[in-house]
Write a structure and sequence with these properties.
Blueprint lengths: L19 H7 L25 H9 L5 E5 L6 H11 L6 E6 L7 H15 L5 H6 L8 H14 L4 E6 L7 H12 L5 E7 L7 H6 L3 E5 H4 L3 H11 L6 H11 L3 H10 L6 H6 L5 H14 L3 H10 L5 E2 H8 L4 H10 L4 E3 L6 E4 L1 H14 L3 H15 L3 H10 L3 H18 L5 H13 L2 H5 L2 H11 L5 H16 L1 H4 L11 H19 L6 H13 L5 H17 L5 H17 L3 H17 L3 H15 L11 H13 L6 H13 L6 H18 L3 H16 L3 H11 L1 H10 L3 H13 L6 H17 L3 H17 L3 H17 L3 H15 L6 H4 L3 H15 L5 H9 L8 H5 L3 H4 L2 H11 L4 H8 L3 H15 L4 H11 L7
């Protein structure tokens, strides 16, 4: 139950709103790039209609986590909220206001504005969380919201967060995050959303839980009494009661319609007569009345209105830049005094915005009357935004101006910023980037090598293979053509010779990456050498990419050297660390551990996953999402060791974390994640869940580069897909796949072909055709042995043993199985045996009987026992692997004090929080550690070394 709070007064009193200078002084240095006016509560230029019924309704909203104000444009949503906020008692509530734009679909930017709005109401309190967003890799929205909720719980202030124009938000990740915020809303917070359309929340669910108050069009319509007050007090027009009643009915209480009607009325004209001359819907009325209003303005004001209606917000400086003359401030003040659909966004009268419908009507008339001026106005706006470090708005206006070269240059700047802040881009940024490229003429893209490399760099997962290679071909041709560097357009090529060489090396590295996915890997290795010969000594970033490509090539191509590949992977991760790209280092290290499983180095791989997860938990960097990559591959090792309890949860959490990262390997790692989930469900016999995981993989593949998608599927999920078919009794489907494979062209790498052949061998065994299976496996074992990929050797030897058993060749079966056991025992393999079922159990029992005559067989005893047990590892130990993902920074602080023996009172004093908050944190820690008391929690923390980073 929420605290009872003093209701705001119905009469409007203007609260103290910070000025732009004051807000700028409160911002951190990087926050000065934020648009300060988005935090301002709009102020009314003149008298407003008193609407006590709506103010009372908003006062009721303080009893709910979420208030939704949903109505079309022109019904006074923003004005109502502004009036209510100004009337809120400052001693009781802190209003945090954010006016949203299309660019706020970037989750990082959305988080930044959200936290900045809170921080301005309680300066410094939210600063640490804001600072975390500026780490090399910003934390995910959910992490930020969890930390925000914890801060709000401990705050002595009550906040009202108002998000205006929420209809502009389309990013699903933001929607999900706000639903999470509402569902876990602390009592000191009330969220108010103003929108033209309902957000994609589960509104029936929120209604059922009494978490939602709704204010809709029917409630926002002006009543007859309010219309009367509006004409008398705001428009200074006296009208008979009957006229007001009819006008209200005719306009359906549409506030903008009433205002335009008042502005359009000559003193001698009846409003009813004017309305009768207009037929059609509200859109037509708006256009007609706007024209009436414009005709009453002097020429300089009309020019200003037409020139600036293209802007979301306008200031004197921006207005002067667009109209190319001085005097914008005076015109803005005149418009405000005339109440001409313009709203001041700050008390200093520096930033304004037009009413949305009025701006739309002006823009429509601008297109009709002065079409040639529209591109020029947008270009001028773009220049101004670029000068003021608002790159996305600059790009948007550059496209609207159809100034392609300028747009391309701005995109290059944006890509450079993305690559300096994070190794890659979020899904939203990828979508935005692809949209930009689609709009740019091919001739413009092809004339800029840096942009071409950027295209390949960011979009290699989703763009078609020929398109990606085409970008690289164009970039290489430009960079190696000496005549290009002597051209007059110096913006086309890097200005420094060293920069040009580094860019060419980067292009070659990515070309090598593409080549490593085809049959001949020697070309990829040669390209890597060329790239290294061009790179400057200190370019550790691209050197890391080169070693990463070498790692993959050595493993999956005809080079076939698993151990050398692992060495290159570890070197790549180390170079990324040196370059300061911790996220890239974690991603590479996680991928390296996946391939180490194939080389049979389970124990070392497990330790590396722990190291990568520890990197992601480094204090001050808040990179928990990147725990997802190594966690997925750690799950595969735990599965092999038969530690199954809680494993599907660990994988699911790893997948969710991967979704929240900004990585150029995002989609590939999601396929790895769902592939791992498929494998875990198969091991546990959960066939429906396994099928769902496979469907997720197929869904991801729809939007991917198909060449790359098929490559990833072949090397990582083909065998498990066939296992699923066989487990479900779909042998005919499996045989159709074999026939289709035989008919198709043999594309891809030797490693892809190897995995496909292993899958075929399993199908032959299922059809009781052991001879065909042995024919498939013979050359495969030789190749895996030559490549020192002992994990794959174990798998193939087990299949060979089963084939020999099926042929009743007992001695061959036991000798082959014995070799597999020899490789498997040092690393503790279990599930590779158990998942082969009863025939393998019989064969192992026979081997144990024979070996037991000569020596002890503890390893075989362990494996055989696993056939009868679902898990040999206690639940608490297996679930512990997920803990580094789950514990928040504050929970780790509380855990440290618990380990030190502090009481709840002592913890509260040390962390300056309430005892109730301490109890809540302790309860969460116990649940996540799966323990019942402090003694068990301390023991578990010591087992997991959770507090090593804190010393």
């Amino acid at each position: 139950m929420r605290k009872s709070m003093e209701k705001p007064r119905d009469d409007i009193t203007i609260a103290m709103i910070p000025s732009q200078k004051e807000i700028t002084q409160q911002l951190m240095p990087w926050q000065t790039h934020l648009l300060a006016t988005k935090f301002y509560v709009p102020t009314a230029p003149g008298p407003l209609v008193s609407r006590p019924r709506l103010i009372s309704l908003l006062n009721e909203s303080l009893k709910y986590p979420l208030t939704l104000i949903s109505a079309p444009a022109g019904f006074g949503k923003t004005t109502l909220l502004s009036s209510w906020v100004h009337a809120l008692p400052a001693r009781n509530f802190r209003p945090a206001w954010v006016s949203l734009d299309e660019e706020d679909n970037d989750p990082w930017l959305f988080c930044t504005y959200l936290l900045s709005a809170f921080d301005q109401q309680q300066p410094g309190y939210f600063a640490p969380l804001l600072a975390s967003l500026q780490a090399l890799q910003a934390p995910p929205l959910k992490y930020v919201l969890v930390a925000l909720i914890n801060l709000l719980v401990e705050s002595r202030e009550c906040f009202v967060l108002i998000l205006d124009d929420y209809q502009l938000i389309t990013e699903p990740q933001i929607h999900s995050a706000l639903v999470y915020l509402v569902e876990h809303c602390p009592s000191p917070l009330h969220l108010v959303i103003a929108t033209r359309t309902d957000p994609p929340f589960s509104l029936p669910h929120l209604r059922a839980r009494q978490q939602l108050l709704e204010i809709r069009t029917s409630q926002l319509r002006c009543t007859v009494e309010e219309a009367k007050v509006f004409f008398q007090d705001v428009m200074s027009i006296e009208l008979p009661e009957e006229t007001i009643q009819e006008v209200t009915v005719r306009t359906e209480g549409w506030l903008v319609g009433l205002q335009l009607l008042g502005l359009s009325l000559p003193k001698q004209t009846s409003p009813l007569k004017l309305l009768k001359e207009i037929s059609g819907d509200q859109r037509y009325i708006l256009d007609y009345l706007t024209e009436e209003v414009l005709q009453r303005q002097p020429p300089d004001v009309q020019t200003f209105l037409f020139s600036t209606c293209i802007l979301e917000r306008v200031s004197a400086s921006l207005g002067d830049a667009v109209i190319q003359q001085q005097g914008s401030q005076q015109i803005l003040e005149r418009l405000e005094q005339a109440n001409l659909f313009i709203v001041s966004l700050d008390n200093r009268r520096q930033w304004y915005r037009y009413h949305a419908l009025f701006a739309e009507a002006l823009a429509y008339r601008l297109e009709q009357m002065y079409p040639d001026q529209v591109p020029l106005l947008h270009y001028r706006a773009s220049l101004w935004y670029a000068e003021h470090d608002q790159t996305i708005l600059a790009i948007i206006h550059a496209f609207r101006a159809a100034h392609w070269q300028w747009a391309a240059e701005l995109i290059e700047r944006k890509v450079h910023l993305l690559m300096s802040q994070a190794w890659g881009a979020s899904q939203h940024e990828l979508v935005m980037f692809r949209q930009w490229l689609k709009q740019l003429p091919a001739a413009v893209v092809n004339a800029r090598p840096r942009l071409c490399v950027a295209c390949a760099l960011l979009l290699w997962q989703v763009a078609p293979q020929p398109t990606v290679e085409g970008w690289l071909d164009t970039a290489e041709a430009m960079l190696t053509d000496s005549s290009t560097t002597q051209g007059s357009d110096l913006s086309i090529v890097p200005t420094a010779k060293e920069d040009q060489a580094d860019l060419l090396a980067e292009e070659l590295a990515w070309r090598a990456f593409l080549r490593c996915h085809v049959k001949d890997g020697h070309m990829a290795l040669s390209l890597c050498q060329q790239a290294l010969s061009l790179l400057s000594r200190e370019n550790y970033h691209v050197r890391a990419i080169v070693e990463w490509v070498r790692f993959r090539t050595l493993y999956i191509s005809s080079a076939n050297d698993g151990i050398a590949a692992i060495e290159s992977g570890l070197q790549a991760s180390s170079l990324a660390q040196t370059a300061g790209l911790r996220a890239l280092a974690i991603v590479i290290l996680g991928t390296t551990t996946a391939y180490m499983v194939g080389t049979g180095q389970l124990r070392e791989a497990f330790q590396l996953t722990r190291q990568a997860m520890q990197w992601a938990r480094t204090p001050g960097e808040l990179m928990e999402p990147y725990v997802g990559y190594p966690a997925l591959f750690q799950a595969d090792i735990l599965r092999e060791w038969n530690q199954l309890n809680g494993l599907s949860t660990l994988v699911a959490e790893g997948i969710e974390l991967c979704k929240q990262t900004e990585s150029m390997s995002l989609l590939i790692h999601l396929i790895y994640g769902y592939g791992m989930l498929l494998r875990v469900h198969l091991t546990c016999g959960e066939l429906n869940a396994a099928r769902s995981a496979l469907q997720e993989i197929e869904h991801i593949g729809i939007g991917m580069n198909q060449h790359l998608y098929l490559h990833v599927r072949s090397i990582f999920t083909t065998v498990d897909q066939v296992k699923l078919w066989l487990a479900c009794g779909e042998l005919d489907r499996a045989m159709f796949w074999v026939k289709d494979l035989d008919r198709g062209e043999k594309l891809g790498t030797p490693f892809e072909h190897e995995r496909q052949a292993v899958a075929c061998a399993r199908i032959f065994l299922a059809r009781e055709q052991p001879t065909q299976a042995l024919e498939q496996l013979g050359a495969l074992v030789q190749r895996a042995t030559a490549g020192r990929r002992w994990g794959h050797v174990i798998e193939m030897r087990l299949l060979q043993a089963l084939a020999h058993q099926m042929r009743q060749e007992k001695s061959h079966a036991l000798s082959t199985l014995s070799e597999a056991v020899r490789f498997a025992e040092p690393e503790g393999y279990i599930r590779s045996f158990v998942d082969e079922g009863a025939p393998m159990e019989t064969l192992l029992s026979t081997l144990r009987q024979e070996q037991g005559k000569q020596e002890l067989t503890p390893y075989l005893d362990t494996v055989l026992a696993a056939f009868e047990q679902k898990s040999m590892i206690p639940k608490e130990r297996t679930q512990a692997q997920a803990l580094p993902v789950l514990l928040s920074e504050r929970e780790l602080q509380v855990l440290q004090l618990l380990v030190n023996g502090a009481s709840n009172q002592e913890i509260a004093q040390a962390l300056v929080i309430t005892i109730d908050t301490v109890k809540r944190h302790v309860s969460h820690i116990f649940a996540k550690l799966d323990v019942q008391n402090r003694v068990q929690a301390v023991r578990r923390a010591q087992e997991l070394s959770l507090l090593e980073a804190k010393g």
